[in-house]
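[stage:ingest] chain + small molecule (LXAUTJHC)
[stage:ingest] validated
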Amino acid sequence: MTADTTLIILGASGDLTSRLLLPALGQLLTREPGRSVRLHGAGMEDWTDEHWREVVQKAFQTTDAAAAFAAVSETTYSRADITEPADLQKLLDDAEGRPALYFAVPPAVAEKSCLALSDVTIPDGTVLALEKPFGTDEASAHRLNQQLAKLVPEDQVFRIDHFLGRSTVLNLLGARFANRLLESVWSADDIASVEIDYPEALGLEGRAGYYDGAGALVDMIQSHLLQVMAFVTMEPPASLNQLDLRDATSAVLRATHVRDDDPVHNSRRARYTAGDVGDRHFTSYVDEPGVDAARGTETLAEMTVEVRNARWQGVPITLRSGKALSSGHRAVTVAFKPVRHLPGGFVGESEPSVLVFSLGPDTMSLGLNVNGADDPLELERVTLAADLGEGALKAYGEVLSGILDGDAMLAVRGDAAEQCWRIVQPVIDAWRKNEVPLDEYAAGTAGPASWNL
Ligand SMILES: O=C1O[C@H](COP(=O)(O)O)[C@@H](O)[C@H](O)[C@H]1O
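[stage:predict] done
[stage:export] tokens:
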């Protein structure tokens, strides 16, 4: 039987393929065994089909996906130089059904490959999936977008952001748009601030070649956290189809700017020194293999933005992420304003309500003031919490599902990718000019003591 789609993984021997893509595909095919997919791996290695099948099987076994292997037992591999039009042409010609080219390769190689695709006859419906970072600044992202536009229609370009496939991130939409209670308080009238924090215990994990050139700002904020912010702040879309949802995302990103246009007072950066995170010891970032200390790369970044529209005017939105940190709370925290008037007679403090979407484990909680059990007029804090479960698919599974369905709802649109660069550029510029100090924190702490995190 002919497959509906051939998923062609370019960079089949890479870490992304074995660590994330194949396990996610295995999970997806186990959950949805009816899918008709052919898998083909391509790369520079002289692998045989048998070797590739072993790689796939091993990756599938890291999940509950052994059964799914049957679905791709016919999977094939070919050696290909993906910057060569002839090799790309062959990959596309050999595909069954609709080809989906997944560029699991460094961005520079993906860009070269997209240029080479200009000399290739691309079958109708071909999907191109590109990993982050998409370009290195607004101008390069724009050039890449122009190149991609010559190849396939925009809704067949999947700029991958796996955070958009996380169930809690999708839950931001459910919570916001399916609850009148929240709908009516979701603006600067009632919200004092928003914080999106993603501390990681992981360090470089052998990725200095990429990370030392990117840093925490580009690695996490320019990409993932701005997309999360867009889900928190977008206007209600008419539907969740790719057109409406991505229109709403782009509109709010266009309105987003560094707070007060002042990156010096609205951004902070730091990098870790030696320390322990749990039972792992980290050397100082600058002593990690492959790191160029002179580059001054940050491993913890923070920036505060504002959305200049009627809904959000004046609300500070702080985005923060870093590596080798203590097990901090990964969360979107929406802090509400205090009540307009607290009637006299209550005992104790009335703290403003706080709604927290935890980004793993996936929970949602609401901190409220109630009357205490002992003294009926004494205010006490309670937290109403909901465990949202893990979601049927992991983030990459959701992303792959979109690619195989040809539904770009969870893919970053070209204009949004450019906006994300435009938003962070003033911070990058200020940091390059050393207008913001590069602080230090010991690995395993919450960040620099002076940050009061
Ligand atoms: O894309 C990336 O994301 C991960 C964090 O995402 P997670 O889902 O694995 O928690 C981050 O560690 C990595 O540096 C970044 O490139």
